[in-house]
Amino acid sequence: MSELRPLTQSKKLKNVVYDIRGPVLDRANELEAEGAEILKLNIGNPGKFGFLAPQNITDAMRAHLDDAVGYSDSRGITAAREAVIRRYANTPGFPEVDMQSVYIGNGASELITMSLQALLDNGDEVLVPAPDYPLWTASTGLAGGTAVHYLLDEENDWNPDLEDIESKITEKTKGIVIINPNNPTGAVFSKEVLEGLVEIARKHSLLIFADEIYDRILYEGTEHYNLAVLAPDLLVFTFNGLSKAYRACGYRAGWVVITGPKDHARDFLAGVQLMASMRLCSNVPAQYAIIEALDGPQDIQIQTSPGGRLYEQRKATIDTLATIPGVSVVAPKGSMYAFPKFDPEMYSIKDDEKFSLDLVEQEHILMTHGTAFNYPTPDHMRIVMLPEAAVLKEAIERLGNFLSSYKG
Predict the structure, then answer these.
(1) Are 376 and 250 in a shared domain?
(2) How confident is the model at residue 1, as a pLDDT?
(3) Residue 59 has what pLDDT?
(4) CB within 8 A of 336, min separation 6: which ones?
(5) Within this chain, do residues 140 and 266 fall inside the same structural domain, yes or no?
(6) With a cut of 70, which residues of the chain have pLDDT below it?
(7) Do 322 and 248 fall into the same domain?
(8) Which end of the chain is more exposed for a tag (fewer CB within 10 A), N or C?
(9) pLDDT score recorded for residue 230
(10) Is 7 part of a structural domain of the chain?
(11) What is the pLDDT of residues 335-353, one digit of tens each?
C-alpha cells in the first residue's frame, strides 16, 4: 500500500479560534478524567448549574414528537415563526415582521454563521466589538471576511467607543455587530450610544447584526433597547433564542428576525435562503419548544430580581471580587457574566491563557481568559455567574488567593 497523502486542516481555519472550548478546557477535561473535580466557569450553560428549562416547554416538545419526524420548511415551521412574530409585535416600535423574514435555526449560532457566509466575499470587513463573543470573529473569518475590532470602553460602563468605530470603517466594511446585552462584559448599552451606533450604520450603509440573546436577563431596572426599533430604516438582523432566558441550551433553538428595507439586499437575502435550504431545516422538535416558550408563562424576571438566583449570584460575584486587592469589575447590568480586570501594576500576567491553565491546574477552577474574547490586553477574565452564590464566593476567594502568589 502506498503512503497516504497527509491531510491538513483547511486554510480557512487559520485564524479561526474558539478558546472558550479550547486548550484550557482540554486540560480541565484531562484532570477530570484523572479524578479531579473541576468547577467549570468557562461557558454559559445554565442546565449544568440546576437552571432547568421550564416544564411547560419540555412538555410541549414531548407532546409534538410525532409531528416532528419530517423535515420542516427551511425557514422553520409556521407556528414557531408566528410565535416569534408575536414576541416582537408586543415590543413598542418594533417594525412589522412578515413570515418570510423569520428563520429558525439550531441555535442563534448557526444563523449567525449562515448570515455571514451569505454576505461576505474574501476581504470584506465586519466591525466586531472587543471584547466580543468569539463566534462572531471566528465565523467572519471562516466566511472569508476580516473582523475589525472596535473597542468597548471599560471606563464608560463598557459602552462602545463611537470615535474608534468611525476610524475603522473602510470601503470594505459591510456590517457591524452589536452584542447587547454584552457577552462577556454584562454591559447593557445606553439608548444614546445605540442611537450613535445606528447613525454610524446609516451614514455608511452598514448592515446591523444585533445579537440580543440576553435581552431579558437584566438587573436592577436596566432597560434594553432593540436595535430594530431604533433603526427601522436600516436592514437589521436580530438574533435570539431559548438558550439563556429559557435555560434550554441543549435544545439548539434560535431565530433571526430580518427588518428594514430589503430591495437593496435581495441578492444577499436570496443567499441567506440558499444557506437555509442547504441545511434542510433546524431541529424540528425544538421548534415546538419555541412556540410554548414564547407564548407561555415568562419567569426569567423571578431569577433576575432580588432573591432570585441570578440576582443573588451576581451580587456575590461583585461583592467578592471587591475584596481582592487590585481587582476591579464594572457591575454587569445584564447577561450572566462578569469581566473583572486585574491591575497590571500589581499582577504580572503576561500570558492570560497560561494564567488560566495555571489556575485550573492549581485550583481546579476553569475560567476563560480575556484575550479569548479578542480583548487586546491580558488583564481580564470572564466569570460565569451560574453556580450558587456560596460556590461563586468560594471560587472567587480562591482566585484571589491564587492571584496573591502568582508569578507569571
Answers:
(1) no
(2) 64
(3) 94
(4) 44, 46, 186, 214, 217, 244, 310, 384, 385, 386
(5) yes
(6) 1, 408
(7) no
(8) N
(9) 98
(10) no
(11) 999 999 999 989 989 999 9
Q: Which of 274, 295, 316 is the last residue of a domain?
A: 295
| Sign for the pseudo-dihedral over CA of 343, 345, 348, 352 | positive
Query: Both 113 and 251 in a single domain?
Result: yes
Beta strand extents in 249-364 (DSSP E only): 254-259, 327-328, 337-338, 341-342
Instruction: Domain of residue 370: give its range.
Output: 12-51+302-404
> How many of the other CB atoms lie within 10 Å of CB of 87?
18
Verify that 95 and 216 share a domain, yes or no: yes
Q: Do 349 and 259 belong to one domain?
A: no
What b/e string do you get for 258-282 counting C-beta neighbours within 10 Å, with b at 16 or more?
Answer: bbbeeeebeebbebbbebbeeeebb
Q: What is the bridge-based pairing of β-strands 236-241 and 207-211?
A: parallel
Beta strands in 301-380 (DSSP E): 327-328, 337-338, 341-342, 365-369
C-alpha cell at 190: 445606553
> What is the structure's pLDDT at 408?
66
Per residue in 296-329, pLDDT tens? 999 999 999 999 999 999 999 999 999 999 999 9
Cα–Cα distance measured from residue 151 to residue 163, given in angstroms and rounded to the nearest whole number: 10
| Dihedral angle computed from the Cα positions of residues 66, 244, 275 and 83, in that order, rounded to the nearest 10 degrees | 60
What pTM was computed for the model? 0.94
Strand pairing category for 173-179 and 207-211: parallel
Examine the fold and report which residue of 251, 276, 295 is the final residue of a domain before the chain moves on: 295
Could you tell me the sign of the dihedral formed by the alpha carbons of 339, 340, 341, 347, in that order?
Answer: negative
Q: Do 137 and 22 have their domain in common?
A: no
107 in a domain, yes or no?
Answer: yes
**C-alpha to C-alpha distance for 223 and 91, rounded to whole angstroms:** 13
Buried b / exposed e along 189-211 (16+ C-beta atoms within 10 A)? beeebbebbbebbeebebbbbbb
Q: How far apart are CA 68 and CA 371, in angstroms?
A: 41
222 shares its domain with 328:
no
Domain with 32 in it: what CATH number?
3.90.1150.10
Instruction: Give the C-alpha separation, 162 to 196, whole Å.
Output: 7
